[in-house]
Every structure is written in structure tokens, then in C-alpha cells.
Here is the input.
Amino acid sequence: MKQCLISPSMLAADFANIQRDVEMLNESEADYIHIDIMDGVFVPNISFGFPVTEAIARHAKKPLDFHLMISHVDPYLEACKNSGAKIITVHYEGAVHLHRTIATIKSMGIKAGVALNPHTPVSVLGDLLADLDLVLIMSVNPGFGGQKFIPHTFAKVEQLASMAANINPDLLIEVDGGVTSENAAALIQKGANMLVAGSFVFQSADPKQTIISLKNV
Here is the structure.
């Protein structure tokens, strides 16, 4: 079986020791570093802004996977690029002109993704799926780390993988929220090929080994 990509979420890192945690990820088998941007409007929380992401980028040796949980994404795409984003994912529920936003991201030479909240069916992406590099399935309600995994995610991942098989077979299918060693294998079996893990990695006794275990479930 092809190894799953792992993108540990900085939302669960120790903000007082960001450089240390980024350097730990640099030395790990993580494939990406996941950056959650929250505005307190689209989601009921605020994470960190671009001065912090620029600091992360200065130390990161892994590509940065930006997840924008904000209401107005277009004015901030350039700031994501300047912070070293290799993937920018925006929410279906928050984008007014989604096709235009995706085209703008791709014109910057950055992979473009769309995230779906738990209540949003994957069928809404039918007309856009061929243009995407990634779809992020939220397996918790966005805004806070450490939430419990929503089981219906398995069916959504399976449906998305079926849709993508003919339209976009290289699509990255990413799952974010409550991912652990207990559900990772089932997610991959259903078609996920990229997993975000925050608390499960950073709160473990040996984060580097936890990342290896997720890659090899």
C-alpha cells in the first residue's frame, strides 16, 4: 500500500515554542506542515496571523499546507504565498466566487484545495473537481483542535474517492479532525491519501514516532 501523506497541524503546537516544534517536524517523517488560519468570523476562534506564519516559514523545511477558515479569502492569498504556502485550501461554505479563487491560487503556482464542513455533501464539488489539487474533508466542526471524529466522514471519503476516480485520479483527499491511529487505516481504505493530525501528534509521548505510525497504518 502506498504510504499516506501526513500533515501535522501547528494549531496543536506549543505557541511559546513554535520554532522548536517546527524543527521537530523538519526532522520527522511528516510530508507537510498544516497551517490553520482562523478569523473569529467564519469559525468561532482565532488562531494566528501572517507574522506568525512567516516565522514558521523561516524555520520550516517541509512544505506548508495552508487551510483558510476565514470569511474573505481572496485578499489574503498573496500573504499565504509570501508565507511559503505550497497548498492553499479554502472553504466551499465561505467562498463567493470559488472557481475564480481556485484559478487565482493556481496562477500563483500553488496547489489549490477546497474544504468541506461536516454538513456539506461532496456532491457540491461535481463541477469543480477536475480543477482541484486537493479536497479537505472536515471530520470535526472547524474552529477548535482536539474534537471527536465524526463517523459519517468515512462515507464522505468513499464517495469523494469514487467521484475522483475518473475525473481527477491524482486528487489529494485530505481528512482533518480527530484523526488517530484508530481511524487512520479505515480512512485510507476508503480513499484518503493525506491526513491532518494535531493533538494526536503533539500531545503524544513521541511525536516523531506517532507520525511514522500514522504513515504506516
